[in-house]
Specification:
Largest sheet: 9 strands, mixed
Structural class: alpha+beta
Helix content: 25-40%
Strand content: 25-35%
Number of strands: 32
Length: about 600
């Protein structure tokens, strides 16, 4: 392969045409632009092909990730996409994860799966490769294809079923070592965001199927995001809404006697409060789920889960699931609620057998006496219901969702709700996986101890999609120099053969100098079409060679999205472009 083929590409034989309009199924602007600019093509729902332009961008993103992982002492390896089921059975996740996991059976009747992540595989290898405390700490990483059979893919590369991730895994002898590697990854992810010109906000998050106690997500805050975030502009607190902490004043007062009241036609909080002349915060409401729980030998058992929150708040199903210890939740049907003696629309835990359901009570309900709640009788409610006196909760915790203006749990100022896309995540896993797969080390005293693990991921395709969403305008992409597939869009606007020859020579010279350039050498197209295509592809620099520019003394250089341009003599092009590229790169450079 010669140098020209490595650093330059002619548009006339580029694999990936531009489109005047995106297909109808595109949902967000960045998805539309990546399709129209010839970066990606959809093969099936949530499954995309990366055409040459996108693949070059992804390789650049991967190199940034690789450099940052190497900087914190990572060792790159490669682990398989197909895993034997017994690894995941050993940790329990084979049974815990729903149909999102793609399982299959090979010709030898062995259960296998397509990798969603690689904690089990790392623990399996650590069990044989790590023997002594002298080998710790350690960190390994890879770039690998993953598959999750998402129920609904969306947003182009934002939520897909097949994707490439950078996964890294830390191995330590104790929690203190894990915390240090966690902090190093936190800083590395901040550097990655800056090097890709993508603003990222680190938020506290739920650990989900990964397990562990501490986790952060690195969010690109944008209206197109599928995650809800709670942000405090006063103190900098940031969390996924699922785990956001906020504070409220509980209702005060002495407990009053329970009172049954007639409330005809009042099946909603609004109707009840209107009839009784009270505020929603003086009421409580019940939200019902059927929880799926692990039984014997991987079997699933279902049980009714009843969440109770104040009438002015919303239920947080993630926290309900966590407190109840359920593998997953689904909305309960009316007949499933009625089977316990509770009446949908007028439900109450009062007078119900504690074993009939798992009652998960929000802390603001548990601390507030004299609330209005259903009476388990159509058209009737109970006044002065008190948790602990009138019914016993199974679990008490924070199961209400944060809301706009809710007092921040850290400083008391109002929280701001926002949307975000999760670009990366980091987890302190603890010893769940090492204990399940017997990954241990021997300490100084000869005692065998489990390895403490951390897991850290970034989706490369999703990162590219977010960069495209952040850097665009009405004409196309405006990719940063660190991510753009090429640095320079060379456009020939020639009528004479001499001009074509000059443009061809410039292309060859730039390639020979190692400058990444895509050359629009199509002879049959008008200038407007070529300019539109160059804008659509979003390369940082545009160089135009035509009779007019040559008469002016050389080639016309401009930045994407900037009207101003200047003429550069042909003999100075390589030096000038190198300087421009270095300047753009330096704007993304980080101080070590």
């Amino acid at each position: 392969m010669n140098r020209t083929e490595r650093t330059g590409q002619r548009v006339s034989n580029l694999f990936g045409m531009t489109l005047r309009q995106a297909p109808g199924e595109t949902e967000i602007e960045s998805h539309s632009l990546l399709v129209r600019a010839g970066y990606v093509r959809q093969l099936a729902a949530g499954i995309f092909s990366y055409l040459p332009l996108a693949w070059r961008s992804l390789r650049k993103i991967e190199q940034i990730l690789r450099e940052e992982m190497d900087r914190i002492d990572g060792q790159e390896l490669s682990m398989p996409v197909v895993h034997p089921a017994e690894l995941w059975q050993a940790t329990g996740r084979w049974y815990d994860i729903d149909a999102t996991m793609a399982r299959f059976v090979d010709r030898r009747e062995r259960d296998l799966l397509l990798a969603m992540t690689h904690e089990e595989v790392v623990a399996f290898h650590a069990a044989s490769e790590i023997q002594s405390y002298r080998q710790l700490p350690a960190m390994v990483y890879h770039m690998q294809t993953k598959f999750r059979d998402e129920l609904r893919s969306r947003g182009g590369l934002i939520r897909v079923r097949e994707f490439i991730m950078k996964d890294s895994y830390s191995l330590d002898r104790d929690p203190e070592g894990l915390a240090k590697q966690y902090d190093r990854h936190y800083e590395a992810y901040e550097r990655i965001g800056r090097r890709c010109a993508l603003p990222l906000t680190a938020v506290r998050s739920d650990t989900g199927m990964m397990g562990g106690k501490i986790a952060h997500e690195f969010m690109y805050v944008t209206p197109i995001g599928e995650d809800s975030l709670a942000l405090c502009d006063a103190c900098g607190y940031a969390a996924n809404r699922e785990v956001a902490e906020f504070t409220l004043e509980p209702r005060e007062g002495e407990m009053s006697p329970l009172e049954r009241v007639h409330t005809p036609g009042t099946a909603t909080i609004e109707e009840v409060t209107g009839l009784l002349g009270i505020a929603p915060r003086a009421t409580a409401k019940m939200v019902f789920y059927m929880g799926s729980f692990a039984g014997e030998e991987g079997a699933r058992e279902e049980k009714l889960v009843a969440a109770i929150v104040r009438g002015d708040l919303e239920v947080n199903p993630i926290q309900v699931q966590n407190l109840a210890g359920a593998l997953e939740l689904r909305p309960a049907h009316e007949e499933e609620i009625a089977a316990t003696g509770m009446v949908p629309g007028f439900a109450s835990p009062v007078g119900v057998e504690p074993a009939a359901a798992i009652f998960v009570v929000d802390r603001w309900v548990a601390e507030s006496p004299n609330l209005v709640l259903g009476a388990n009788e159509t058209d009737y409610h109970l006044r002065n219901v008190c948790c602990g006196r009138d019914y016993e909760p199974t679990h008490v915790g924070a199961v209400a969702l944060a809301f706009e203006g809710a007092p921040c749990g850290r400083c008391g100022e109002g929280l701001r709700m926002a949307r975000g896309v999760e670009v990366g995540n980091i987890f302190q896993l603890g010893t769940r996986y090492s204990e399940g797969l017997e990954a241990t080390y021997t300490d100084e005293d000869g005692a065998e101890r489990p390895i403490w693990m951390g897991s850290y991921g970034i989706g490369t395709g999703r990162l590219l999609a977010c960069v495209a969403e952040e850097h665009r305008d009405d004409y196309g992409l405006k990719l940063p120099i660190s991510v753009a597939p090429y640095h320079v869009a060379l456009v020939a606007l020639a009528r004479e053969e001499e001009t074509w020859a000059a443009a061809d020579r410039v292309f060859e010279e730039l390639c020979a100098a190692g400058i990444e350039v895509i050359y629009d050498d199509r002879r049959e197209l008008r200038a407007g079409v070529k300019f539109n295509d160059a804008d659509l592809r979003g390369l940082p620099l545009r160089l135009v060679i035509g009779e007019r520019s040559l008469e002016a003394g050389g080639a016309e250089l401009s930045h994407r999205g900037v009207r101003e341009s200047r003429i550069i003599p042909l003999d100075d092009l390589v030096a000038e472009l190198r300087q421009e590229i270095d300047t753009l790169m330096s704007q993304l450079a980080l101080d070590d």
